[in-house]
Amino acid sequence: MADSADDVLTSAHVLEYPYSRSVGPVIGAFLTGLRDGKIIGATGSGGVVIVPPTEYDPYTAEPTGEMVEVGPEGTVESWAWVGTPAPQHPLETPFAWVLVRLDGAGTSMLHVLDAPSPDAVSTKMRVRADFVAEGERIGRIQDIRAFVPAGSA
Amino acid sequence: MPRQGHRPVAVVSFAQADNVRRELRRNEVETLMPVFAEVFSNIGITKDDVGFICSGSTDYLAGGPFSFVSALDAIGVWPPRTESHVEMDGAWALYEAWVRLQEGDIDAALVYGFGKSSMSDLSKVLALQLDPYVLAPLWPDPVSVAALQARSLLDAGKATERDFAEVAARSRKAALSNPKAQVAYDRNVAELMGEDYVVSPLRTHTLPPITDGAAAIVLAAGDKAFEWAERPAWITGIDHRVETHSLGARDLTASASTTKAAEVAGVNDGTVEVAELHAPFAPQELIVAAALGLGDDVLVNPSGGALAANPIMSAGLIRIGEAASRIMDGSAGRVVAHATSGPALQQNLVAVLEGV
Amino acid sequence: MTSGDQRGPSDERGPVTTLATPIRLDYVFSAGIAQSRNLRGLAEGKFVGQRCGVCHKVYVPSRGSCPVDGVATDDVVELANTGTVTTYCVVNVPFAGQSIEIPYICAMVLLDGADISFMGLIQEIPTDEVRMGLRVEAVWVDPEDLGPTMASVKYFRPTGDPDADYETYKDYT
After folding, report:
1. Does position A5 have pLDDT exceeding 70, yes or no?
2. What angle do CA B86, B69, C106 make, to 5 degrees?
3. How confident is the model at residue A59 (pLDDT cuts 50, 70, 90)?
4. What confidence category does residue C1 fall into, taking pLDDT thresholds of 50, 70 and 90?
5. B-contacting residues of A 124-153, CB under 8 Å?
6. Beta-carbon separation of C67 and B76 below 8 A
7. Which end of chain B, N or C, is less surrounded by CB atoms within 10 Å?
């Protein structure tokens, strides 16, 4: 009978959810912008531009207003170097997660930075969004392939 | 009298499962049964003595919908019981039970949390708590999110990597005297600093273990608490607060929600002797301790904290149980417990517990 | 940087209104001690349940705990191959993945000696003759195909015995 760990049965189990989400007008504008190769934020209370945009200002809960284009360059606010990417990560080669304050934005956006080594990454470094080719952009966060050091090819 | 609520409520019993990397033999029900048996037998009561049951767990960890319902088999909910559940750490289930006990019609509640992190890839499961439109599709794992927070702390000059190692060394050393600890060692800071980065700036020692586990607490109100426990741990203040979901819109080097909850719970209305802080990653302990305004004389995480064992969905409840145990065993008179949920300390619960 | 209202459609595809976010999670489930006993029994062509020491009810399969008393069901009980249909339905609706020709009977079967019924197919009887109280027996797959799965039970078929008295199964319907 099942009285040791060897006797307990295990089974592989897979959960897959093919979610399709309605994005609404605000995130929809952001995703539409990405498809066009642009990054769009929403103006919150006091004129702070929130990127990625939300329907509300996270501090005042008031509806956000005018949508404005920001970037495509920005400043790294924080970073974390991933030496061994997982299969689900956006890049197959070692990369940095970065919080990027895009030019014109008042908040930071989380994405990946394609850089050769951690020595090439620093807080306050300038980076630029590198979009996938126009025909391959469909309106999703992965339309930005990665951020890259500003001024690089 | 408690600072909050009109009715005094106390922790009167606490039990936890062995914290292990992989509990292969037992399913969730089989893991919980001995925990319930212990939490009831500690004070000589049965399931029929509690008027309310509340649990914390998450279906993504369990791999099936409404998984908390089948876990109720471990209690035996017949005749039909008043029961509730939160998709949060069991500490939030305790908060709901505390509120429920304020109504005055029942005198005791059972609270528990459980989860088997080993069944799936925790890096993926926890990525799914992030914004599903613009963050989760990139699959940022919890270690990476914590590393971004740690880097912010370093860049702000609020801590050094050595500070992170000191938290880890102290916690794992304290864990040597915790029989339920999963990771415990006596290693010096210099040795820990020699470890490789997992995701820089986080080295191995700054990370919590991956843990399968469960924990339970019995709350009792008024006279019932004295009837069941020699030294009940009275909850004199409790509050929880949440911050924006957006990581890029808040100051990751501070925890405004912890500070607010601490104010409401009255943390600094008296001397804090012991604090059990739910900081899964070593740098987070520095943030939480600062947010609570704890002095250098406070004994922090004598259990080893979440660095000793981090059973998702019960590690926060265990902090309350460990802090309460210091009251119940007579070693402290006023303690603080903290629990966190969400990425990078997004939500925080603070409780003050006192002896008579 | 430009500014102005950017909400308008960007091209002939119109604005993005939906986002596909497929997720996949891989698990390794542990059946646990009690369920493993049951599943290993199925691999040997028999039903194995567990009895509660407090209320003496027999659960098949058992999750390891009596859901009434909350105590471990450590007493292992081998059950009969025969049982009683406590309720049933006639499935007339086709659905994706259906492996049996409709109409067919899906029934709750209370094994002799058990205190909980479980779901099974009823075959070798016209669908309009299936009834509550019908006495049935399990038909197992060929010995070489037996495994630790409910698929080891092909279906249940009538034993030909007289129907069970309602009083014997009324607490289980």
Report:
1. no
2. 145
3. confident
4. very low
5. 140-142
6. yes
7. N
For A134, the token pair is: 């126009």
- Tokens for C112, please give them: 């002799």
Tell me what the mean pLDDT of segment B237-248 comes to. Answer: 94
Is CATH 3.90.420.10 the classification given to domain B9-118+210-231? no
CB neighbours of residue A42 within 10 Å? 26
Structure tokens that stand for A103 in this block: 């030019």
The amino acid at residue C141 is V
Strands (E), A33-124: 39-43, 49-50, 67-70, 73-82, 95-102, 109-113
Neighbours of chain B (3+ CB pairs under 8 A): A, C
Fold of B122-208+234-354: Peroxisomal Thiolase; Chain A, domain 1 (3.40.47)
Characterise B313 by phi-psi region: left (phi > 0), alpha (psi -120 to 50), beta (else): left
Would you call A41 an interface residue with chain B, using a CB distance cutoff of 8 Å?
no
pLDDT of residue C2: 41
Q: Please judge whether C1 and A69 are an interchain contact, meaning their C-beta atoms are less than 8 angstroms apart.
A: yes
pLDDT at residue C94, rounded to an integer: 84
Paired strand residues for B119: none
Q: Domain range holding C125?
A: 32-172
Residue C7 Cα to chain centre, angstroms? 51
Please report the pLDDT score of residue B6 as a whole number: 82
Query: What is d(CA B115, CA B110) in angstroms, rounded to the nearest whole number?
Result: 17
**Separation of CA C40 from chain center:** 16
Residue C10: per-residue pLDDT: 55
Decide if pLDDT at C7 tops 60. Answer: no
